[in-house]
Amino acid sequence: MRKLTYYVGTTLDGFIAGPDGQFDFFPFEGDLAAALRAEYPETVPAHGRGPLDLDGVPNKRFDTVLMGRATYEPGLAVGVTSPYPHLKQYVFSRTLARPDPAVEVVATDPVAFVRGLKKQDGEGIWLCGGANLAGQLLEEIDELIIKRYPVVIGSGTPLFDAPFRPDSFRLTDSRVFNTGATITTYTKETDIPVLIRPTGEADLDRVTAVTVDEPVGWIPADRYLEELKEGMYRPEWTWIAEQDGRVVARALWWGRATSEHPVALDCLYVDPSVADRSALGARLISAGLRDFAEQGAPKPPLYNLTLPNGWREDPATVAAADWRRDAALAAGLTDVVERLRLEWTPDAGLPASSGRLTFTEGTDEEFLDVFRRIAVGSLDGETRRNLALMGPEATAQEEVDFYLGCPGERSWWRLARTPDGEVAGLALPSATPYSRNVGYLGVVPELRGQGYVDDVLAEITRVQVEAGAELITATTDTDNAPMAAAFARAGYRTAQTRLIWSAPEQGPAS
C-alpha cells in the first residue's frame, strides 16, 4: 500500500501561503536547503532543478504529486504547465481544462481517487497542497512532513481548510537547522495499540519463529541461537512489536561478544499485514535507540541492510529496501552510505606485486601518523565525515583504536615504504568474528595515482593467505571508484551490496 504524505512548508503561525497565495517569504538557504536538496530532490520544480544542480538526480521518496487548483495556478499564470515533469502529476479541479499532456486533471472525488492510487504499485504520493485539498484528504494522509520556517505573517492560507474534527498524529522525527527552521514528521495513529519492548528469555521461541520472506539479508533462527550463546545477540538487544498478542515486527541488534552496547541493527522485519510498515519499523528502531542511549551507549548503532547484486533491477528487492529506508530515516538514521562487499578466494590467484614497495613493522605512533596522512583527501565516505567532524588527528586515533579492538592480529600490520625508505602507505590485514578481511589500506596523498595501491592490496592478500585464509572479505563505498577498481584488478569479486544508515555525528570539527 502506497503512502500519502503531506509535505509542505509553513510559517510559525501555521500558514502555507500569504493572503494572495504568495510564498516567496519562505527562505531557502543554509543547512536546511542542503537537506531538502539531498533528501527531497523531486519536490523541486523543473525550473529550479538546473540552478540547484538537480537535473538528472533521481527521485528519493515520491513518484506522484497531487495539487489543488490554487497550488497549480501560480505556475500556470507564468506559462509553467508541467511543474514536476519527473513525477506523475494530478491537479484536482472541476473546472480546469487539461493544460498539458503531462498533467492529469481530476474532476472526481479526491478521496476515492487517492484510495485507488494508494492501491497501485509505485513510490510515495506527495500531497503538495493546498489547504482545501488537504482538508478533503485528511483521513487519507498517512504522514505529515512539516517544514516550519522562523517567519510569522499574521494571515494567509492555513495548513488545512476543513471542518473541526480532531485527528491524531504521532511525532516520529524532528530536526532543527542552523537557519532556525525545523522539519517535523508525524505519522497517523493506528486504532489497534502496539506494544514495543525488548525481549526476555521467555520470548525466545517467538523471536526465532519469525521468518523474512523478502529478498534482503536477514538472520535465521540457527544463526541467532548460535550467536546468542556467544553474546553477539542478546535478549535486551532484541526488540519486538506485539499487536493483539502477536509479534508483528522484530529488530535484532548485534555486537561483539565483548561489547557493552550493540554495534549495528542486523535485521529489521515488519509483517506485511501492517498497513504502514515503515512507520512501525521507525517506532521499533527509535525505541531501541532510546533505550541504548539511556544505558550509556556513546552513539546510536547503525543499521546495516544486505542486498543482492543488481538489487535495483528487482522490484521486490527495491520495495523491501524502500520501507526499511523510510523507517531508518524516520528514526533519525539519516546518513546513508552504499558499500560493496567483496570477496577473494584462492581460485582468483594471488594478485601480482610490482616489487616497488617494501613492507616493515611499525609502532602504534607510526601507524597513527600514516592514518592521519591518508585520511586527508580520502574518497571513503566515513573518513570524510569524520574529518569534517573531528579533524585528522581524532579521525586517525579512532581508526587505530578500532583496528586494535578487532579480532585480527596486531603483528599483521605493515608500513609500505619506497626504495629510499619513505613511507608510502599502510597495509593492515584484519578480521571479523566471521572471516579474515582486508581491514584498511591506503597510500599517502603525494604518492597517489602511481599504482601503489595495487602493491599494498597484494601485500594484505599475501599476509592473509600465508596465515591460512581461504576467504578474504573487503568493503568499499560505491562512490570510491578507484578503490573498487583496485579490488577488481586484485581478483576480488563483488558478493553483495550493503546500505548503511547511521545517525549524523554531532559537533563541529576541532
- Look at the helices and sheets and give the structural class: alpha/beta
Radius of gyration using CA atoms only: 26 Å
Number of helices: 14
Point out poorly predicted stretches. none
Order of neighbouring strands in the sheet with most strands:
11-12-13-14-15-22-16-21-20-19-18-17
What is the terminal-to-terminal distance? 46 Å
**Main sheet characteristics:** 12 strands, mixed
Helical fraction: 25-40%
Beta-strand proportion = 25-35%
Overall 3D shape: globular
Mean pLDDT across all amino acids: 92
Count of individual beta strands:
22
Task: Produce the secondary structure layout.
Blueprint: E1 4-10, E2 15-17, H1 30-39, H2 46-49, E3 62-68, H3 69-77, E4 88-92, E5 103-106, H4 110-119, E6 124-129, H5 131-136, E7 143-148, E8 157-158, E9 169-176, E10 182-188, E11 195-198, H6 204-208, H7 221-230, E12 238-243, E13 246-254, E14 264-270, H8 277-294, E15 302-307, H9 315-330, E16 335-344, E17 358-360, H10 364-375, H11 381-390, H12 392-404, E18 414-417, E19 423-431, E20 436-443, H13 452-466, E21 472-477, H14 481-489, E22 493-502
Parallel strand pairs: 1-6, 1-7, 3-4, 3-6, 4-5, 14-15, 20-21
Antiparallel strand pairs: 2-8, 7-10, 9-10, 11-12, 12-13, 13-14, 15-22, 16-21, 16-22, 17-18, 18-19, 19-20
Helix pairs in contact: 8-9, 10-12, 11-12
